[in-house]
C-alpha cells in the first residue's frame, strides 16, 4: 500500500497580509521556515520513496527546509499547484471582496457555483489532483511519498477521500502552514489517516 505524507507550504509574507497568492508567490516568513524545520525533525525517521512538490517557490522552499538532510531529489508536478485565481492574485481579501463581491461570496459560501474567467474552478483543481493520485499509484504503488502543496489542493484532496461534494470544500480542519495530512491508498480506496496535524509546532 502507499502512504502519502502531504504538507501545506509554510507561512508566507502574503499569508500574514491575507493576500491571495494563487500562482503568484511570496517568500516564507521566519515562522514558515522554522515550522518546516520542526516538521523535518518530526519526520526524520520516516523513509520516503519520493518527494514531490508543486513548482511554486514557496512549496519548494518548504520542501528544502523539511528535507534538508535527505539525499532524495525533489520532483515537481504542476498538478500540485495552487488554484489559479486570475485578477485576484496579489490582492488582499478585503480588496477582492470590494472589487468582486458576488464572486467572493460564491468562493467562500457556495464553492460549486464559483467561477473565475481568468482562473480555475474548484472542480478543475480536483480533477488534476485526481489525475496526480492515479498516476502516482501506478508508478509508486507501495511505500511512503512526501508531497508539498497548497491549501486548496489539500481541500480538494479531502473531498476525494470522503467522496464529498464541492460545497463541503471549506469543512474543517483548517490547513495551517506545514500542517501534515496522511492518506493511505490501497485497493483503489483513499483513507485519511491524519488530518491537518500541527503537533510539531504546538
From TrEMBL:
One Pfam family from the record: His_Phos_1
Molecular function per GO: phosphatase activity
Gene3D superfamilies: Phosphoglycerate mutase-like
Record key words, sorted: Glycolysis, Isomerase
PROSITE patterns registered for this protein in UniProt: PG_MUTASE (PS00175)
Binding site for substrate: 8-15, 58
Stored InterPro entries: His_Pase_superF_clade-1 (IPR013078), His_PPase_superfam (IPR029033), PG/BPGM_mutase_AS (IPR001345), PGM_Phosphatase (IPR050275)
A GO cellular component entry from the record: cytoplasm
Stated name of the protein: Histidine phosphatase family protein
Entry superkingdom: Bacteria
Active-site residues per Swiss-Prot or TrEMBL entry: 9, 82
Taxonomic classification: Bacteria, Bacillati, Bacillota, Bacilli, Bacillales
